[in-house]
Design goal:
The protein contains twelve helices and 13 strands. The protein is of the alpha/beta class. The structure holds iron/sulfur cluster.
Length: 351
Amino acid sequence: MVGNVPIGGCAPISIQSMTTTPTTNISATRDEIKRLEDVGCDIVRVSVPDMDSARAVEKIISQANIPIVADIHFDYRIALAALDTGIAKLRINPGNIGARERVEKVVAKAKERNVPIRIGVNAGSLEKDLLEKHGFPTPEALVESAMRHVAILEALDFTDIVLSLKSSAVPLTVSAYRLVVKACDYPLHIGISEAGPEQSGVIYSSVGLGILLSEGIGDTMRVSLTANVEEEVKVAKRILAALEIQSSMPRVISCPTCARNCLDLFSLAEEVERRTSDLKIPISIAVMGCAVNGPGEAREADFGIAGGDGEGLIFAKGKILRKVREKDLVDELEKEIRLHLEKDAESGKDC
Ligand code: SF4
């Protein structure tokens, strides 16, 4: 358990992100966490690079509605201070803490507070001897590093562990996770680290996480983007929805358009997505340009538009409702969607 969020086994795959504000800026960090909560983030990590940040974490936790993970490197005193604040998880590699008694102190306090520890191996910061042994970051090197840290915790009878083995390369990351599931049974936090700016980062994360999740690998995930944090959560939710693993959001199905399209379909599809983004229900909404594939897709979806010349047909639950002028299409579609959802909610039906 990370706070009230289960990780592993049959638990839903939880979505994580990480704040980008200085942790000591409590109000900015709290605001960023609130934005993450609003888009459906399950767990949020904050960097704790110094004692001031550890003190700030306590205040941040008291104002957050989702579990907070403290991200700490090397300094066991900061880890101990963070554990006193009520954090829900500690991200630290025990092999990097130093002397055994320091590790023991951190582990003893984590145990006492029921706080799990995430061991996060990253290809960019592999131990020197492993780099020398393997030549460069290989899947085997990542797994060997992870299992070293695991052995340290297990020797102290601590098994409340989550593992991650990340790199910015998709094949390396995928191979490392495939290997580690053969080596141990701990829940896995998956991600492609430093995946890049928004467009390329989305592609690299979707390919990497898509492969892993489709093989049943991964218990909690983060999409790392050089972009607004909310985007990380939205992309993660879409990856899970695309794989039909879990979904709590509408999906707009829209055509790429061609010479048969007579509507401003690009704006129409974007506007439909924007207007329905607050709905926390996995409905499908087709926005199609013409009468060739439009009516078919619109009928198959929960709701839809099939375009004509300056007008379109509105569909709901497989039936044509009416013909509407192009300028009214989004308003009318939104009205129908909300009306149907209200009726379904009153009758206790799932859409
Ligand atoms: Fe073209 Fe119609 Fe297909 Fe859209 S639905 S791509 S407009 S044929």
